[in-house]
Amino acid sequence: MTYHPKSEFIAVMMERGFLADCTDYQGLDEAFSAGVVPAYIGYDATAKSLHVGHLMNIMVLRWLQKCGHKPITLMGGGTTKVGDPSFRSDERPLLGPEQIEANIQGMQQVFAKYLQYGDAKTDALMLNNAEWLDTLNYLDFLRDIGRHFSVNRMLSFESVKSRLDREQSLSFLEFNYMILQAYDFLELNRRYGCLLQMGGSDQWGNIVNGIDLTRRVLDNEIYGLTTPLLTTSDGRKMGKSQGGAIWLNGDMLSSYEFWQFWRNTTDADTGKFLKLFTELPVDECNRLGALEGSEINAAKIILANEVTTLLHGADAAAAAEATAREVFEKGGVGDDLPTLTLSAADIGDGISIVQLLVKSGLAGSGKEAKRLIAENGAKIDDAPLTDAGLMLNAETLASPVKLSAGKKRHALVQIG
């Protein structure tokens, strides 16, 4: 695409690799040039923390605010009760109101690290779609909103079609989700003058629905913008690791483990990730991403420090780097390593090394732990671990023991 933007925000989106598609590049660019644009991204409260897979769109909201516009984080207190079927092969488990509220509170802690909330013109707004969805009258909603939706068109959306093509059940409850999301955009435009919905490219159909509905009901011009679905250079979905999701809440994943995730970025992804997840100038990101051999490791440390500083603060980033140097370069035991603390009762007469590898999160199962040992991938206090039947007692664990899986994953085990 050869469009040359006038507005700073669209220029940033294009230059740093955030932009997948837009419903009207020129119209949106002109809106950004004309004044403050309120724009939103919706987040369903399906877990008590956001994860790295959400981070690209959080950075989009941060750049929006840095460019002088107004971010809206819309929490799906209402839509979470239904569940988004987009590109899922099964129905989401339905959550109760208390769990949804607890999840929203956990997610809000993350947004507060990246956005400035308040009452000023470009301060972010935190909203909850339960505000308008919880009080809907079903018959009024069908008559006033439902009549604008074509079932034929809804069936043509890729997210729905993929479920039906595989002959997987799509409940009427889930089918309603796209109508509710479209209604969110209408209400945000009506109540808050919101002009733009953003989201991952899998949300394109839902975004277009909201634009179409708002034009029909309010006759207002609004826009949609999507970000690319991010995969790593080896084809894996961004944000997943051997140990599970890379959570953004510090109580669910330590700042050291978060730092280590970015330090372990593949060479081919380093430049791209610097542009998407840090605020370093694009030229510097390109320079660092082009380094080769051992020099690229310095770029990965910069990436890890920059991303960790944004979320956990500069002190946490510095502590994580110091721990990594202690562990990797000097073969020591870092203060910041993930630590498993056991009681004497947990250990009893002894506890197997296989159990410790699983409990510390270094292996997903006993079978995986045994395979790790058999393939010479495990170490205890930096010495190769060869005996899968090894038992450790309270005396052995009186001082912390360092366990390692491969070269990059470590944990301490101690008695509390």
Describe, in plain words, how this protein is organized in 3D.
It comes from Sulfitobacter noctilucicola. Belongs to the class-I aminoacyl-tRNA synthetase family. TyrS type 1 subfamily. A motif ('KMSKS' region) lies at residues 237-241. The chain has 416 residues and is α/β, with parallel strands linked by helices. The protein has 3 domains: 8-227, 3-Layer(aba) Sandwich (Rossmann fold); 254-329, Tyrosyl-Transfer RNA Synthetase (Orthogonal Bundle); 339-415, RNA-binding S4 domain (Structural Genomics Hypothetical 15.5 Kd Protein In mrcA-pckA Intergenic Region, Chain A, Roll). Helices cover 45% and strands 14% of the residues. It contains 19 helices and 15 strands. It has helices at 8-16, 25-34, 55-66, 97-114, 130-133, 138-144, 151-156, 158-165, 172-175, 177-192, 204-218, 255-263, 270-277, 282-289, 295-312, 314-329, 344-347, 353-359, 366-374; strands at residues 21-22, 38-43, 70-75, 125-128, 196-200, 223-227, 240-241, 244-245, 339-342, 351-352, 378-380, 383-384, 391-392, 401-405, 409-415. It has a 6-stranded mixed beta sheet with strand order 1-6-5-2-3-4, sandwiched between helices. Helix 3 links the parallel strand 2 and strand 3 (70-75). Helix 10 packs across helix 11 and helix 15 (295-312) runs antiparallel to helix 16. It is globular, with a radius of gyration of 24 Å.
